[in-house]
């Protein structure tokens, strides 16, 4: 085997033929082991699961390194041992070739269609621009289908948006899928997703950790996933470490998950098992509110439906809502026309002080247009059926709310009756 110092790095690592990379990989105890300086490099693989399918759909290849005395070296420390951009490009390519060799040698079912996620360093993306012939040559040489490779690029570390988009397009032309990694950290920008159009967006592990301890972060996570879906990409939540985080990931509508809770990295790719997702789904059926919250909302829903009955008997909105507004979490009641425009002022609870709201300029809602709100158009789409919105931050009272809504036929025409209920105190 050639030593690294003997490789022709002076002529630029970008021109290194595949043979110069593969000569740094030797068989050892049934595995492919890479050599870089004084380090021995090996591969571990962590499963990636589809929540909808409750099965493994891919594996991320992770670097494992040891010094000559056998002591372990962290992946970041191993990567940092490269001196200069040329060596960093060489080491990156060595790792990808190593991971691919070990993934193939592990064996798999004839019908296996799992993805192999391979990280590509920022230096490779920046220095190779639109073309990286090495990787196309590596895939052709190995006989591994490009459609089963997901190239992971650290989204926030590439400042040039055009360069990022070109890199994504380049790997796509090879036939690979592309994932933007660690979205939500550092310089992440949703515009990058719209412009680069990756196949998969991996949400930074900090987001799921924050969602476990913060209701606000928990509310934002599904919206972030929805944005990724609107951009045409799949959402993968990584770093899921316990059941609470797994349940949050499930309720966020994420497509894919990865983390210690489901399976730890191993030298042999795990092929079987659902990571406990089926049992998790049974225990944590997707719901917008907790069991206690749903039970308490039922009391409010019954009182709300009595308001609708009173309106049908020609009572005005204020007297019809008196009972409901006396309940502790009710904030206001109001009527919306079929065009989405609020008819008249909202009827507020007796102790409500509009001037005390953080959003006081938005309190007066007569004539406001709520046509795009789900509680309006869903009530119209399902006449006579009570609708309960997802939790949201009310622009009227600056509190987390749900809105009950119901169509009611009045003498003046069809109306949507609404009631805002503050969630604080229900959870």
From TrEMBL:
Domain of life (superkingdom): Bacteria
PROSITE patterns, sorted: EAL
GO molecular function: cyclic-guanylate-specific phosphodiesterase activity
Domain spans labelled EAL: 22-279
Protein name listed in UniProt: EAL domain, c-di-GMP-specific phosphodiesterase class I (Or its enzymatically inactive variant)
Source organism: Pseudogulbenkiania subflava DSM 22618
Pfam families referenced in this protein's UniProt entry, alphabetically: EAL (PF00563)
């Amino acid at each position: 085997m050639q030593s690294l110092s003997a490789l022709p790095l002076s002529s630029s690592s970008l021109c290194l033929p595949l043979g110069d990379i593969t000569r740094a990989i030797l068989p050892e105890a049934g595995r492919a082991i890479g050599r870089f300086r004084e380090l021995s490099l090996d591969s571990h693989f962590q499963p990636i699961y589809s929540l909808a399918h409750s099965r493994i759909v891919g594996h991320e290849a992770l670097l494992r390194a040891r010094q000559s005395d056998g002591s372990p070296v962290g992946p970041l420390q191993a990567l940092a041992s490269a001196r200069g951009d040329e060596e960093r490009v060489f080491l990156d390519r060595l790792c990808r070739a190593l991971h691919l060799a070990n993934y193939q040698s592990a064996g798999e079912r004839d019908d296996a269609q799992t993805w192999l996620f391979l990280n590509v360093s920022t230096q490779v993306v920046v220095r190779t621009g639109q073309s990286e012939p090495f990787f196309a040559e590596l895939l052709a040489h190995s006989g591994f289908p490009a459609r089963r490779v997901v190239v992971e690029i650290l989204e926030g570390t590439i400042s040039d948006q055009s360069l990022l988009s070109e890199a994504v397009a380049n790997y796509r032309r090879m036939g690979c899928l592309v994932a933007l990694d660690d979205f939500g950290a550092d310089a992440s920008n949703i515009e990058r997703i719209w412009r680069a159009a990756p196949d998969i967006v991996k949400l930074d592990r900090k987001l799921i950790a924050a969602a476990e301890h913060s209701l606000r972060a928990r509310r934002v996570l599904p919206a972030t996933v929805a944005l990724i879906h609107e951009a045409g990409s799949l959402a993968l939540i990584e770093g899921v470490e316990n059941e609470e985080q797994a349940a949050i990931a499930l309720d966020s509508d994420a497509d894919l998950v990865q983390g210690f809770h489901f399976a730890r990295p191993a030298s042999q790719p795990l092929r079987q098992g659902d990571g406990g997702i089926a049992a998790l789904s049974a225990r944590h059926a997707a719901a917008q509110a907790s069991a206690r919250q749903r039970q308490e909302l039922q009391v409010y829903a019954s009182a709300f439906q009595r308001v609708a009955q009173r309106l049908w008997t020609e009572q005005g909105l204020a007297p019809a809502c008196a009972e409901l507004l006396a309940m502790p979490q009710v904030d206001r009641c109001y009527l919306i026309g079929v065009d989405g425009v609020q008819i008249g002022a909202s009827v507020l609870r007796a102790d409500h002080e509009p001037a005390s709201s953080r959003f006081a300029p938005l309190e007066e809602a007569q004539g406001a247009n709520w046509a795009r709100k789900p509680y309006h158009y869903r009530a119209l789409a399902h006449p006579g059926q009570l609708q309960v919105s997802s939790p949201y931050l009310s622009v009227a009272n600056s509190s987390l709310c749900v809105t009950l809504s119901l169509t009611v036929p009045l003498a003046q025409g069809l109306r949507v009756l609404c009631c805002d209920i503050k969630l604080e105190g229900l959870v």
